[in-house]
Amino acid sequence: MRRDGSSFETWLLLGPALLVLAAITLYPLVRTLWTSFTDAQLGGGPASFVGLDNYLFALKDPGFRAALLRTLYFTLLSVGLEALIGVGTALLLQERFPGRTFVRVLVILPWAVPNIVNALMWRLILNPEFGSFNALLLQTGIIGQYRSWLGDPAIALSMVAIVDAWKNFPLVAFIVLAALQSVPTDLYEAARLDGAGPMARFLNVTLPHILPSLLVILALRAIEAFRVFDIVYVMTRGGPADATKTVSFLVYQQYFSFLDAGTGAAYAVVIALLSSILILAHLRAMRREGSH
Amino acid sequence: MREVKTSLRCGLGAFLLTSLVGLAPARAADLTLNAIFMQQAAYSEDDVRSMTRDFEAGHPGVKVALEFVPYEALHDKIVTAAAAGNGYDVALFDVVWTAEFAQRHFLKDETAAIPAADTAAVFDGAWSTVTYDGKRYGMPWILDTKYLFYNKDLLRQAGFDHPPATWSELASQAKAIKAKGLVQYPIVWSWSQAEAAICDYTTLVAAYGGDFLKAGKPDFQNGGGLEALEYMKGSLKDGITNPNSREYLEEDVRKVFSNGDAAFALNWTYMYAMANDPKESKVVGKVGVAPAPGVAGKSSVSAVNGSMGLGVAGSSAHDKEAFAYIAYLTSKAVQDKYAKLSLPIWKASYDDPAVAKGQEELIAAAKVALPVMFPRPMIPSYQRLSTTLQSAIQSALFTDTTPKDALEDAAAQAARIR
């Protein structure tokens, strides 16, 4: 078959998919970029070009910088917890024990709960007056009296990150579990013969095998966590005292509460640029796993 | 293969059927109005559904599709739909959005559609809810302010036979109730980082004779505006305000009060009926209601204008039917019939024994509070101002930041609002 003939065919076959991509990804992207250089208002008159004004405003806005730091903290805590709990769970589920299949199904459940439902459920659990979390901690003697979890600016963001981790750790656990199953068992036997203890076996045999998959999934989770919006919107709406105002929440507020599309778009572009760093890390991790 | 054929045949059948339906002559019954309401406070979802059914029965050919969202999502739903150009026909809107919606043509000017005779028959505070720049952008519907609710039993046990007339008397009664160990935290508010906090704050600003803006410039950091926030912070420090108030919305306030865990609560009209409902409350028959207190030498009572209106959305193609629906919902007959969760906009209703029956105390409080409702600023950029103030109030209530520093910081930010 001649090469140029197949090339025409390739484009013909790719065409519909490319068109759809252009319509749902490229167009909004270009439109947002354009909006970020204007003073556009939702429902307002025609927008005019204002150059870098919105970006200068965003960079000078202490609220935006504070929100960026909060978002970074949220991402690190949530993804860190997912890595720890996820790997731990995967190691447990890899062991043989009666009812293992049942437990594996059980573990996936949090991940299957829709985000909004998860957030609403945890808001009830963490309620300061009648939440079951307080009841559990009081009855086990860990706390002396009921306390507020989402109403305390010092810990509200951490609580939201923990709830996010609870929902997403199963994904990490299952990716790692799949990687664990591909580790040749004779490597463990060899390690045992060499006198390696459990910790040494984990560090020298298990970890190198699961690391590529783990990095891929953690990078993916970091990208998602960085854009966090829905769980914050439902659980705390940015409060108390701005403690959970993440960058995506700020974009939402500029756009839909203040109707200031220009500034909102500029914030969104900055966030997209920052996420692209994470996306690059993800792609590098993917390539490493591919070559592995 | 047979399966494929069968499904093909089914598909074809369905296709023919839909085309036939499409060809049927369009009947008048096809007109559907899309209306958006809120889920909490004021009229219940059941009330709105039953009013709407009655309207449809009287207007053959018009159907109303109802959507209910939480108050916290209402503004954003309306503006998103309006900006997309395929929005609702009828929208419930808050008094603080009127300026913004009018300026952006999210609502239609209905001044000409409203009968002149209505002007004198409806409270002025109700009209101001829907008025911007001298034009009326719909009909007022929910005439509401925050009342002081008190638990008569707890007050009596502490030796008080009347509700407090001033905010400082409220604080001293609360301290006595706390000292007697009747409840841990006598007062509960809705100070969550939301509009609800601004409504409580506004009530106090009104009591202390403060201002939000003076000649277009922020003024809440001075005088009454500052004293209002100092009162809030002071009541937390004294241990008389439930510290969880800082994460509560109105429904949380209702639950705490209905559970008998608070002696005082600031809330909208709807709590009176619900706190007296045995299915919802443990304090049935003990609920007292009065206008929010005043401040000696400055005010005798205080009230915030928390009213809401119904308007025709700017993008609606069915103005006439949409306004007919609004006129029906806001009519005196309908409002008198459903006067348990929200009080009518019509002055004459308040002297009607049928409306007052079973809620005489509430009506008496309303007659005093409604005429003195204090407005939040009616400016197009209200959302920005409110968000800035919410942050300032919360930072003063949660941290060591003094009310003065928090409000001055907010004023500096608000001065930049276009």
Largest interchain contact: A-B, 22 and 32 residues
Strand content of chain B: 5-15%
CATH superfamily name of the largest domain in chain A? Answer: MetI-like
For the record, the CATH architecture of the largest domain in chain A stands as Orthogonal Bundle
Helix content of chain B: 40-55%
Largest sheet of chain A: none
Poorly predicted runs of chain B: 1-28
Protein name (chain A): Carbohydrate ABC transporter membrane protein 1, CUT1 family
Subcellular location (chain A): Cell membrane
Family (chain A): Belongs to the binding-protein-dependent transport system permease family.
Transmembrane segments (chain A): 12-30, 72-93, 105-125, 155-180, 201-223, 265-283
Protein model, in words:
The complex is a heterodimer of chains A (292) and B (418). Chain A is mainly alpha-helical and 292 residues long. Chain A has two domains: 35 residues, no CATH class; 243 residues, MetI-like fold (Orthogonal Bundle), CATH 1.10.3720.10. Chain A has twelve helices and no strands. The longest helix of chain A is centred in the N-terminal third of the chain and has 33 residues. Chain A is globular and about 75 Å long. The two termini of chain A are 33 Å apart. The mean pLDDT of chain A is 89. Chain B is of the alpha+beta class. Chain B has two domains: 181 residues, Periplasmic binding protein-like II (D-Maltodextrin-Binding Protein, domain 2), CATH 3.40.190.10; 193 residues, Periplasmic binding protein-like II (D-Maltodextrin-Binding Protein, domain 2, 3-Layer(aba) Sandwich), CATH 3.40.190.10. Helices cover 45% and strands 15% of the residues of chain B. Chain B has 18 helices and 14 strands. In chain B, the strands form four sheets. In chain B, strands 2-1-3-14-6 form a five-stranded mixed sheet, with helices on both faces. A five-stranded mixed sheet of chain B has the order 8-11-7-12-13. In chain B, helix 2 links the parallel strand 1 and strand 2. In chain B, helix 17 runs antiparallel to helix 18. The longest helix of chain B is centred in the N-terminal third of the chain and has 22 residues. Chain B is globular and about 65 Å long. The termini of chain B are far apart. At the A-B interface, helix 11 of A face helix 3 and helix 17 of B.
